[in-house]
Amino acid sequence: DRYGFKKSNQYISKAEYDAWNTNYTQYIERRRKKWYALMRAYGLMTDDPIRFPPKSEKVKRYVRKGIPPEWRGAAWFWYAGGPGRLARMQGVYWELVRRCEKPEDEGGLNDADREHIERDLHRTFPDNISFKPDPPTTPLSSPESSPESWPDPPDPPILNSLRRVLRAFALHNPQIGYCQSLNFIAGLLLLFLKSDEEKAFILLDVITSVHLPGTHARVLEANVDIGVLMDLLREHLPAVWNRIDDGDPADLNPAPGKRGAPGLGPAQPRLPTVSLATTPWFMSLFIGTLPIESTLRVWDSLFYEGSKTLFRVSLAIFKLGEPSIRAIEDPMEVFQVVQTLPRKMLDVNMLMEACWKRKGFGSVNQELIDERR
Amino acid sequence: MAESTGTPTPRPSSSVKLVLLGEAAVGKSSLVMRFVNNDFQENKEPTIGAAFLTQKCNLPNRTIKFEIWDTAGQERFASLAPMYYRNAQAALVVYDITKPQSLTKAQHWVAELQRQASPGIVIALVGNKADLASPGSFPAPGDDADGVEANADAEQDESDARKVPTREAKAYAEEEGLLFYETSAKTGQYVAEVFTAIAHAIPESSLKGPRGVGGQTNLGRDDGARVNLAGPRETGPKEGCAC
Ligand SMILES: Nc1nc2c(ncn2[C@@H]2O[C@H](COP(=O)(O)OP(=O)(O)O)[C@@H](O)[C@H]2O)c(=O)[nH]1
Ligand SMILES: [Mg+2]
């Protein structure tokens, strides 16, 4: 596709993709024209811009309708407050990269994180052209063998960047280190930041400290987000909740972390089995869950509006999936349905509409999310 | 996919909840993909959280529907594991035969399951990536145990990436009463056999038909504690699972 990913997969056929893409390509073109006009109105460059219009209702709407693909990375960086952070962290990234080379006892990166990063490097977007080893390497020696026997890999440049970013991040954030899923997030950042490692590093920091605090930590708090989502689901989509709620009161499963704040209602929220399917929605920011274009649109709003986006999108997925969920007869199938639902959601405009509709989840604002976490 | 292979014969069917545990990158997801889709992917993406899949397995006189929970391997995800293995009737604990460390991790999982999971849980210890071992050290069907041991002890040639001798893992499995197989998700070697063996080993009493179908008798339950080194026969099981 236009980003180097495969068009079709197990969930979306080539025909479905093509049918959607024809219209969507025109849609992108229309939005691009609007963005150009907007940029000009603010006297901003349109050729590889790094500055974007100040936040306003109008700009928010524009972002929700999608940032032009070629500006995405720059716009994410801008709206996430990247320039300010970069100024404060001048040189930090490259210093970390240098330190990573050192042994652990001299302030370098520990072996476990180093090994885990190495292990996942080649497992990051293996189907994307940018992440594939350059020429179709004739694998004389088997490339998948153990690390000891890894031939000095003819890695594509983006994998080397990814390695450095993940290592520097792990060293900089000892309470997180390397967590699986960060490879995907950092990989997608690099892809859209034209491999500017320093900026990818800073956005990774924003994501893990501002948008998903604790989610990836060594003491994993991914269940905190999920607990909040399940609460919201119960309030906003009771019909769906009733279908997925399989918790028997005996195994109330209080999530670790800051749960149990008063004012959440009488019952300690429990996590139904299905909630497990939503772990990657948060941890990977929908990479691999939603089709790539849909993921990118979510990220547009995430960097502009914050993590409430993630919760609203999640609710929208359940909302759009409500008919399928209600149609389930065998309770064992619920999980599979919920797991599969988002993977088919190619029509991101519909998803985003469901997500932002006032009468829908308008009350799911950032304050609410922050409070419930 | 799974549906297509079913015969119209109304065999009694029951579902079995199975969970996969083991260190990251040992090949859990690949084993499931081989079993469910008969497919393999180099550089399989890591699993975040967990994935859920189902696959049927036809035994001579019943159909077992596996509800498979494939989990993330990284240490920090371990805190989520109890949610997966709760009520599981079977577990596949996987290690990588080229990584001794991964067997240690597998042993921790076994211990945790024995402590915390349902009492009757059937556990299979699976050494994956057997294709990376030199042919000599791969236990061929029909080899008796001594032959295998001799081979595993033999001088390693450089194409042999095996670091965990079959004998060692097997001895451990025997001691703990686990099923034991060495598999390759890449070639498909013994993958179906693992699942078939598990299906056979589930005690009747713990089989609950998904729609109230009671258990049939006939299948030996004593399989449960026996170590099955090599699968019953060549790959491509005749009765075996739908793959
Ligand atoms: N050679 C070989 N490689 C394998 C085998 N099974 C998995 N792999 C590779 O090992 C890596 C990890 O596999 P994956 O299934 O994701 O492991 P998981 O993290 O345990 O789920 C991937 O690159 C696979 O392609 C196998 O049987 N033989
Ligand atoms: Mg996996």
Automatic annotation (TrEMBL), chain A:
Residues 139-149 have a biased composition (Low complexity). Coiled coil: none annotated. Pfam families: RabGAP-TBC. Residues 125-154 are annotated as: Disordered. GO terms for molecular function: GTPase activator activity; small GTPase binding. PROSITE patterns: TBC_RABGAP (PS50086). Residues 66-306 form the Rab-GAP TBC domain. It comes from the Eukaryota. This is RabGAP/TBC. InterPro entries: Rab-GAP-TBC_dom (IPR000195), Rab-GAP_TBC_sf (IPR035969), Rab_GAP_TBC_domain (IPR050302).
From TrEMBL, chain B:
Residues 143-158 have a biased composition (Acidic residues). PROSITE patterns: RAB, RAS, RHO. GO terms for molecular function: GTP binding; GTPase activity. This is Ras-domain-containing protein. CDD domains: Rab5_related. Keywords: Nucleotide-binding. InterPro entries: P-loop_NTPase, Small_GTP-bd, Small_GTPase. The keyword Nucleotide-binding applies. Residues 134-165, 209-243 are annotated as: Disordered.
